[in-house]
Structures are given as structure tokens and as C-alpha cells.
């Protein structure tokens, strides 16, 4: 994508229309926004919007019913090529079985049979606003991001890029030909907030709106976007037994995407000592995310990059370029 993105913004690119979209919620069973959006769409029997067929899925029904993130293992870490091709035995965890079911239904991953666009809806306890998370910065998804960002003025809209080979991409959205997660917070686990629900619903509606315009022949002009690219993860300070010895410092708490400079406080030990950041200036996100305690992550750090993309329109029948 890096080389492709350098094409002139004046060049227009034609891409086949997108006819199938999957909207998924409940991949983590205690993140309620996506779960309730999917249930509402199913209740209203929303299966087609204009030229786009829509599949709505509660991805982890057992965890959703139990109100837990997962039952045996994190479903959103089960979609690598290795795990999707692993043999199923009596001891295979429920989530891995479910991942292979979803891959068969929405993929298979990397195939021409996969859905054109897969959107997975998540919540975070971190103060991140509305974020789209991509594995690959595709022109279609960049245009969708820019469209949402331009239309939603009430909340910060950002993009996070994970530079991981698609074969190693572990999240559900990697199963589609294109895909992204929508991550919105702050929202506590097991809680539904009206403002967060409405943010995500608006982002989903705007995505479907963009697809309708694109498929109907509208040309979207090229431009540039900023994306946060993961550099590294930072764990909490720990003692010799592996126990956490500090909390996120109050100056960092709730300041996701605020530039972190060397010397800025990041942790406050339980003994009252302030621990400061040492390193290059980077942007923190997923700060103090509840679900990442078990993953030994206090926050991620990213650099900000600017990407250019060309004008785009749907390829017409018989068109070769």
C-alpha cells in the first residue's frame, strides 16, 4: 500500500463495486454497543441496502449471553492463517471453533469468496473517541475513513494501522477482502451508553451511505489522511513476582493520542513515585484499557504518518482499468 499510496492524487482509479458487507458485534461479549447494533439490525431485518447485501452476525454468542469478554480464549486473536487451518479436536477451545465457523461463513480469508467488506464493532474503556483500525490501508477503506471523518464533527475520528502481514492478522475483520474494526470509547465493559451507541450507529450508517454512492457511480476525490501506526506496547511496572507496582499516571490517563514526550509522567507507583517516559516522541492509545491487563499492556505507542490516496470510482461493466 505504501507504494500505491504515492500515486498522484490527480489519477482516478476504478475498483469493482462492493456488493457484500458483514457487520459484526459481540466478538467480545461484554462490549455491548456492537452487540446491540447488530441485534437491532436483525430485528429490523436489514439484509440489503440498495445494491449492498448485508450480513449481520453476533460473533461470540456464548460470551455475549454470559456477559464476558470470551469463554475460553480471545476470539479476536483467533483469525491467523495458522489458527484457522488448525485441526479441530475435542480439546479445541470454543472460540477457535467459532473462528473457523466464521471464516467458512464470511471468507475463507484471502479468497475471492470472502465478503467485500467486513466491519467489526468494538468498545474500549480507554478515552479514544471513534477509531477505525486497519491491517492494510486500502484505497476503499481510506476513502470510507475520510468520509466518516468529514461527516462526524461531534467526536474525534482517527485511524490506527497495524503493520502485520495479512496471514498473521489475528482479528475478525481480516477475513473479508477488506475490513476494519470500529473501536469506540470510553465505555465500561458490560455497560451500554447512548452517546457511544449513536456514534457507532452513525459511523455504520455513513459507511453504508458511502458504499451506495460509490456503487452508483459517484467519483470520490483523492486526498490525504493521517494514520497512527503502532510502534510498540508498554507494560506496567512489575515486581519480581510479576505483580503490578504502579498505575497509569493521572497526567496520562484519558489523554489517548496526546503526544508523549521524553520526561512526561506515565506511571505513579503505589509508593507515590512518579515514573517518566524515556524515548522518542510518540502517541499513546488504549491507555489503561481494562482488557489489556491480562495481555500485560498498559498502553500502545504509535507514530503519526500521512497517506495520500487517489480519486476513486466504481468500475463499470466491461471496463478494464
Description:
The protein has helices at 32-43, 61-66, 81-84, 94-106, 139-151, 194-215; strands spanning 12-15, 20-25, 48-49, 52-58, 117-123, 129-134, 157-161, 178-185, 223-234, 246-248, 265-269, 274-276, 283-285, 299-309, 311-314. The chain has a ten-stranded mixed beta sheet. A three-stranded antiparallel beta sheet has the order 10-11-12, with no helix packed on it. Strands 1-15 form a two-stranded parallel sheet. The model is unreliable at 1-9 (pLDDT under 50). It has six helices and 15 strands. With 321 residues, it is of the alpha/beta class. Helix content is 22%, strand content 27%. This is N-acyl-aromatic-L-amino acid amidohydrolase. It is a peripheral membrane protein. It comes from Crenichthys baileyi. Residues 224-303 form the AstE/AspA barrel-sandwich hybrid domain.
**H/E element sequence:** EEHEEHHHEEHEEHEEEEEEE
Strand order of the largest sheet: 3-4-2-5-8-6-7-9-14-13
Question: Uncertain segments of ≥5 residues (pLDDT<50)?
Answer: 1-9
Quickly give the CATH architecture of the largest domain. Answer: 3-Layer(aba) Sandwich
Span of the ends, CA to CA: 18 Å
Strand content range = 25-35%
CATH-defined superfamily of the largest domain:
Zn peptidases
Q: Describe the main β-sheet briefly.
A: 10 strands, mixed
| Overall helicity | 10-25%
Would you count the extended β strands for me?
15
Mean pLDDT: 94
Main structural class: alpha/beta
Rg of Cα set: 20 Å
Question: What is the 3D shape?
Answer: globular
Tell me the count of domains.
2
The name CATH uses for the topology of the largest domain is Aminopeptidase
Figure out the total of helices.
6
Q: For the record, what CATH class of the largest domain applies?
A: Alpha Beta
